[in-house]
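Quick question, first post here. What does this chain look like in 3D?
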Amino acid sequence: MNKPLKEKIVSKFIKIYKSQPLVIFSPGRINLIGEHTDYNDGYVFPAAIDKGIIAAVEKSKTNYCSVYAYDKKEKYQFNLDSIAPIPNGGWRNYILGVISEIQKKGIGLSPFNIVFGGDIPDGAGLSSSAALENSIVFGLNELFQLELSKKDMIFISQKAEHNYVGVKCGIMDQYASMFGKEDHFLLLDCRTIESKAYQIDLKGYELLLINTNVKHNLSDSAYNNRRSVCENVSTMLHKKALRDVTEKELLALKDKISDDDYQKASYIIQEINRTQKSAEAIKSDDILKLGQLIYQSHAGLQHQYKVSCDELDFLVDKAKESNAVIGSRMMGGGFGGCTINLIEKNQINNFTSEVTKSYKTKFDNECSIYQIKLSSGTHLVT
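> Answer (accepted):
Ran it through. Tokens below.
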């Protein structure tokens, strides 16, 4: 957690509202492997990170609520009895959505004040939205002693995103942000919403994110297309989801679907398998095997599922050329965002200096580098 930022947010809260707040840290997340497997009832392998949202919250002495977005220097006031989505409301809708979902449970709230800010880079695919939602629901739960469980809270956050932001996200982002464990990845079963924590010893390696700083506008239509392909193939095989399909069963369908659709379904089945193998690699302390699986994941996303882009592929190719990197892949929905890399600690400076230069030459654009550590999930800061 960013301690100087925490101090600034608390000091801003005291300056505006003249009282001492409760402080919550809610982390962003990465996903080691298991991409696009969530809506196929598969496994994902996320972790909370040390970048996130810090929210200061306290009861209000007025009859309305007030929220101040520290990074944007914007203030918003509203009444609890007239909660509704705001057209193009941006960050306000995440907060209103959480309040609305709490109210739908028949839980009464009284007015409160919030100041929030964060250090999750914009557009990096590190789930700042889930971190914000979780910080609000967790803060209100603490403040008003609502007795919501962590599981109750992540579903409130997810529904806020569905109903107020209009993003039909899976549960991984909210789950990883809420349940994260320091130095652990969580093997999350997206069907049962249960996870197993795996402590990782990175040896002489470190996790490094490289942000392409691009977002190609194919992402929404491509996501919907792939989701419907997965559902169609499952239906044709009379299965609930691709998680229940073996490669042998899929082969029986090869002549009945296009090669493109066959490859997409095949990628999902293989990726679910790779995610489980990654957990075994961590358990048996085989960091090199883990790196190979991460490279295989990118190849599948690039050639079979076709959700990568030139910028992501360029960064992964650069990683492959370097002896310092043992695994690299695109992370997230695709068509931009970050690559996640397993890199030798003492080679980070050389590698990033070379990659930054060659990326700029190739794309006339800057890439951004983030070193991260695995963090605890959403919690009260003392």
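The chain has a mean pLDDT of 95.
The radius of gyration is 21 Å.
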